[in-house]
Amino acid sequence: MGVFGFGRAKAAVPAAEWFTKTYGSRLGKRAVTFREAIARVASGDSTRRTIVETGCVRERNDYSAGYSTVIFADFIRRYGGHVSTVDLSARNMALCRRVTKRWADLISYEVGDSIAYLAAWPGPAIDLLYLDSWDYPVVADDGSQAASQAHCLGELEAALPWLHPRSVVLIDDGALPGGGKPLLAKRRLTELGWQCIMDAYQTLWTPAGANGLDLPGRMR
Ligand SMILES: C[S@@+](CC[C@H](N)C(=O)[O-])C[C@H]1O[C@@H](n2cnc3c(N)ncnc32)[C@H](O)[C@@H]1O
After folding, report:
1. Ligand 1, atom 11: nearest CA belongs to which residue?
2. What is the structure's pLDDT at 7?
3. Which atom of ligand 1 is nearest to the CA of 68?
4. pLDDT (tens digit per residue) in 183-210
5. Per-residue pLDDT, 215
């Protein structure tokens, strides 16, 4: 992981408005939660705005999977910040690099396991954590759903020390048979007293009441 280049805010239009106009209609079931996550991140300090995602874009124009790296990168170019993305697949990361080339100065690309990456995260504090790595199989009776859920929980646990009272955690593939990718992570967030902001196809969480929360980790 190298030195982080943070983009400066340039846009005059509110982020939620920009997002809806640019990506809203293409994102279908994910639009409402991406929009809320981005709006919340945009309301914070733009000078060190930090987005971390697990599971990068792996196909050109793959809006049906979220097209997350592109959306986050476009957002930070306009509103300030930095995006870090990690993926186990060198092939997928190479594709991601190609489709996000125009924002490459504001993106850190890492090939490797997402839990190890988050456990070794060098900072700064994470404003938006997007968990979308290990694919969740819709139909499976071989333990592969549980493996995806356990991996997602592992990512959350590894990232907790880097979250702050205004962080948001967004997790993909929730509304699926068997509870989806975030099943165990949602249980853990509930245990920690976090607040669920939206629970749709994606699930969006923030520490309950930015006041008085006793987070286990480092604060900005
Ligand atoms: C659903 S795709 C990500 C889609 C992307 N977020 C988007 O919006 O287009 C899941 C990705 O997770 C990656 N992956 C699977 N296991 C992983 C792991 N243990 N660590 C990091 N990435 C992993 C896969 O290689 C794949 O590229």
Report:
1. 55
2. 73
3. 8
4. 999 999 999 999 999 999 999 999 986 4
5. 43
Query: Residue 63: CB within 6 Å of ligand 1?
Result: no
Question: For the segment 210-219, what is each residue's pLDDT rounded down to a tens digit?
Answer: 433 444 443 3
- Regarding the domain delimited by 15-206, which CATH topology (the fold level of the hierarchy) does it fall under? Rossmann fold (3.40.50)
What spacing in Å lies between the alpha carbon of 57 and ligand 1's midpoint?
8
Strand order in the sheet with 203-206: 107-111, 82-87, 50-54, 126-131, 163-171, 203-206, 195-199
Q: Which conformational region is residue 209 in: left (phi greater than 0), alpha (psi within -120 to 50 degrees), or beta?
A: left
Residue 59 Cα: closest atom of ligand 1 = 9
Q: Residue ranges per domain, the chain?
A: 15-206
What's the DSSP call for residue 197? E
pTM of the model: 0.93
Judged on CB neighbours under 10 Å (0-12, 13-18, 19+), 101 is exposed
137 pLDDT more than 50? yes
Does residue 62 line the site of ligand 1, with CB under 6 A?
yes
pLDDT at residue 59 tops 70: yes
Does residue 16 come out as left (phi exceeding 0), alpha (psi in the -120 to 50 range) or beta?
alpha
